């Protein structure tokens, strides 16, 4: 690596152009120009060397049901109008995007599974919120257009909204992670609660599908937005404040 | 996802340059591709639209959002890592370090901030910025002039003119 004070001989080759050079995505003319510059510029050669170093990419979480990327593309290309339904698994809705969901939040038909039914699946018992406790997670379920009062179950395409109870004056950072069949999924945008209180609705909603049981956890951290890389390693990586709930598929 | 394998390393380097934090950088890049994967359609995971420039801008926007969130700033400063790449600019074109970048996030509008990042962190020319963002060279120049004045005011150090 060059020193911090070494300067480019003329105008530096931008990092984007160096990346494209590495990927051979420049035109022949542009590539010749970059090569000519690199021959005389040690600073830019050092940057290219950095760009060419191997880098380990973190594994990308798969969609629920281990749906392959190829299958997703097939659905997009072949099913046309059906793709919205068939491919947008865990599709996140923007805040206020669904009137029905807003009603759902307002209605607060909230269910909470019992602690006894929420063991196993690798999630510590302490992660399951207890009704009346300081921190709890609750799910509102919309099933076939109607609000259902059994958030311990889901059918393909059901829409869920997450409600969190936590003690003020905390304003924790949060992310929602769904564990299914050994995989972690992140259906909503991470964020920060404006304030803690009873049944705070998180922005957006998501759908569930598949045949396996699902653990929905709200990762809460007072210091920082929980890292998806860490959460993807499993429930043991959940921050201390986190809470989970379990829902079962009706299709099995 | 082919686009992730092909462009992920470039985007990860880009995010690290802006955030100086590998964990946050990974989250930004992963989050982008997960959203693309879930969204399907025109910007789906293997869409032809997913060329490097498009993704580069998307990662830039997400990094800027991280930087603009005051709740992230202290942590980023505490956990920052030394930049992997050297500054290649001349003495009058100072590199924008994380401290200054965070100050600028509160001073500049989104577009000027984005263009400043391309110019001073990614070393793009005005022509490259214009091509990437779709704005005219004149607009890019004006935005960079404005941003440069803000940098001067905040840093009280010489900042580069356009080459």
Can you describe what's shown?
The complex is a heterodimer of chains A (252) and B (163). By secondary structure, chain A is of the alpha+beta class. Chain A is built from seven helices and eleven strands. In chain A, 37% of the residues are buried. With 163 residues, chain B is an all-alpha fold. Helix content of chain B is 67%, strand content 0%. In chain B, helix 2 (22-39) crosses helix 3 (52-68) and helix 6 crosses helix 8. The longest helix of chain B is centred in the last third of the chain and has 19 residues, at 137-155. Mean pLDDT of chain B is 79; it is low at 158-163. Classes of the chains: A alpha+beta (252), B mainly alpha (163). Chains A and B meet through helix 1, helix 3, helix 4, helix 5 and helix 7 of A and helix 1, helix 2, helix 3 and helix 4 of B.
Short description:
Chain A is of the alpha+beta class.
Give the overall pLDDT of chain B as a whole number: 79
Class computed from helices, strands and strand pairing of chain B:
mainly alpha
Helix content class of chain A = 10-25%
What amount of the residues of chain A lies in strands? 15-25%
Coarse shape of chain B:
globular
Oligomer: heterodimer
Bin the helical content of chain B.
Answer: 55-70%
Query: What Rg of chain A do the Cα atoms give?
Result: 24 Å
- Alpha plus pi helix count of chain A: 7
Number-wise, the strands of chain A total: 11
Which runs of chain B of at least 5 residues are low in confidence (pLDDT < 50)?
A: 158-163
Pick out the low-confidence regions of chain A: 1-5, 64-120
Topology of this structure?
The complex is a heterodimer of chains A (252) and B (163).
Chain A: H1 15-22, H2 28-40, H3 42-52, H4 69-78, H5 83-87, H6 99-107, E1 136-143, E2 146-148, E3 153-154, E4 159-165, E5 173-180, E6 183-185, E7 191-192, E8 200-201, E9 206-207, E10 214-221, H7 228-231, E11 243-249
Parallel strand pairs in A: 3-11
Antiparallel strand pairs in A: 1-2, 1-4, 4-8, 4-9, 5-6, 5-7, 5-10, 10-11
Helix pairs in contact in A: 1-3, 2-3
Chain B: H1 2-19, H2 22-39, H3 52-68, H4 70-79, H5 98-105, H6 110-120, H7 126-133, H8 137-155
Helix pairs in contact in B: 1-2, 1-3, 2-3, 6-8, 7-8
């Amino acid at each position: 690596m060059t020193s911090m004070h070494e300067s480019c001989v003329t105008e530096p080759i931008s990092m984007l152009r160096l990346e494209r050079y590495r990927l051979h995505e420049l035109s022949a003319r542009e590539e010749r120009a970059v090569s000519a510059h690199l021959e005389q510029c040690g600073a830019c050669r050092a940057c290219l060397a950095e760009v060419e170093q191997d880098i380990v990419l973190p594994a990308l979480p798969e969609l629920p049901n281990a749906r392959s990327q190829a299958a997703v593309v097939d659905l997009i290309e072949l099913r046309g109008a059906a793709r919205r339904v068939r491919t947008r698994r865990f599709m996140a809705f923007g805040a206020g995007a669904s009137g029905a969901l807003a009603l759902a939040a307002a209605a607060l038909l909230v269910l909470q599974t019992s602690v006894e039914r929420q063991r196993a699946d690798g999630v510590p018992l302490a992660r399951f919120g207890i009704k009346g406790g300081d921190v709890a997670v609750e799910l509102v379920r919309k099933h076939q257009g109607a609000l259902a009062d059994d958030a311990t179950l889901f059918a393909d395409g059901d829409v869920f909204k997450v409600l969190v109870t936590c003690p003020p004056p905390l304003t924790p950072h949060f992310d929602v992670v769904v564990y299914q069949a050994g995989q972690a999924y992140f259906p909503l945008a991470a964020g920060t609660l404006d304030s803690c209180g009873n049944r705070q609705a998180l922005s957006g909603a998501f759908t569930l599908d598949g045949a396996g049981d699902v653990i929905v956890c709200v990762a809460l951290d007072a210091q920082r937005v929980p890292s998806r890389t860490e959460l993807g390693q499993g429930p043991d990586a959940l921050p201390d404040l986190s809470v989970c709930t379990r829902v079962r598929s009706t299709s099995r | 996802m082919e686009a992730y394998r092909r462009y992920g390393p470039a985007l990860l380097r880009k995010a690290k340059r802006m955030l100086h934090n590998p964990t946050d950088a990974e989250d930004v890049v992963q989050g982008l591709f997960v959203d693309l994967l879930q969204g399907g359609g025109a910007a789906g995971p293997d869409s032809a639209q997913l060329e490097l420039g498009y993704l580069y801008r998307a990662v830039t926007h997400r990094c800027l959002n991280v930087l603009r969130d005051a709740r992230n700033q202290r942590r980023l400063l505490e956990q920052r890592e030394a930049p992997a790449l050297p500054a290649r600019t001349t003495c009058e074109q100072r590199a924008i370090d994380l401290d200054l970048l965070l100050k600028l996030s509160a001073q500049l509008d989104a577009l000027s901030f984005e263009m400043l990042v391309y110019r001073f962190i990614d070393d793009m020319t005005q022509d490259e910025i214009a091509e990437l963002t779709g704005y005219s060279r004149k607009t890019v120049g004006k935005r960079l002039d404005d941003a440069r004045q803000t940098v001067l005011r905040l840093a009280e150090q010489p900042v580069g003119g356009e080459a």
